[in-house]
Amino acid sequence: MSSNTPRQPVRDLRFFLTVPHACSYLEGREATTLFLDPQESPGRGVYDALALLGFRRSGRHLYRPHCEGCSACISVRIPVADFVASRNQRRLARRNADLSLHVRPAIFDSEHYTLYAHYIRTRHADGDMYPPSHEQYRTFLTLDQDYARLLEFRLEGRLVAVAAYDQLEHGLSAIYTFFDPAPVLDRRSLGTFAVLSLVERARDLGLPHVYLGYWIRECRKMNYKQAFQPLEMLDGRHWRRTLPV
């Protein structure tokens, strides 16, 4: 069992609720989102505190679900010190040993955007991120803050994946990963490998956790998160170890 409470009080911050809108994960459900006041700077101290309460970042916005009568979205994180890669994950790591990894600041890069646009058009043409645009990419994945990073994955110099993440005081927060959807790369499972790479990076930095965002039992797209064990879930204000089923 693990529990944390934020060291910085958040009671003086201002928050806003969105109007109910269609849920992106569960068909036929409505969702409401709690946002930190956009006038508040998402600086490291505020972000560190809110991340412990289940908040995520999208562009300059810090948010978390706040849906009446629904608690399906559960914040989850990997305790780095206790994580043990499964046999499949170890095999996957060996399969991707020929990739080179490079950390970059979260600034706009045309090569990154070209890969992102191709990924969205190929894998998510039926989603709310389609069609991709420069403005959409900039507002979503670029940020002029020193904690915001992009991890590049290259195969013989060719960009094949990018993982956006934030480096916080108590862990790395995975924001979004996009990759080359070419069938020849499918066996590399680049999305899963990106998470494994963040775990290794957190371990190298001496950071205790990797935050994976929200897990929803009924959402098949989130099943992959259960493969990273042990996993901790946010229960109110406390993080507790659990084995989702």
From TrEMBL:
NCBIfam families per record: PRK01305.1-1, PRK01305.1-3, PRK01305.2-3
A Pfam family annotated for this UniProt entry: ATE_C
Residue stretches making up the N-end rule aminoacyl transferase C-terminal domain: 111-235
Task performed by this protein: Functions in the N-end rule pathway of protein degradation where it conjugates Leu from its aminoacyl-tRNA to the N-termini of proteins containing an N-terminal aspartate or glutamate.
Main localization (coarse): cytoplasm
Domain of life: Bacteria
Reaction(s) catalysed by this chain's protein: N-terminal L-aspartyl-[protein] + L-leucyl-tRNA(Leu) = N-terminal L-leucyl-L-aspartyl-[protein] + tRNA(Leu) + H(+); N-terminal L-glutamyl-[protein] + L-leucyl-tRNA(Leu) = N-terminal L-leucyl-L-glutamyl-[protein] + tRNA(Leu) + H(+)
Signal peptide as annotated in the record: none
EC number: 2.3.2.29
Record keywords: Acyltransferase, Cytoplasm, Transferase
Protein name (database record): Aspartate/glutamate leucyltransferase
Compartments, as annotated in UniProt: Cytoplasm
Source species: Halomonas kalidii
Keyword Ligase included in the entry's annotation: no
Domain N-end aminoacyl transferase N-terminal: residue ranges: 21-91
Species lineage: Bacteria, Pseudomonadati, Pseudomonadota, Gammaproteobacteria, Oceanospirillales
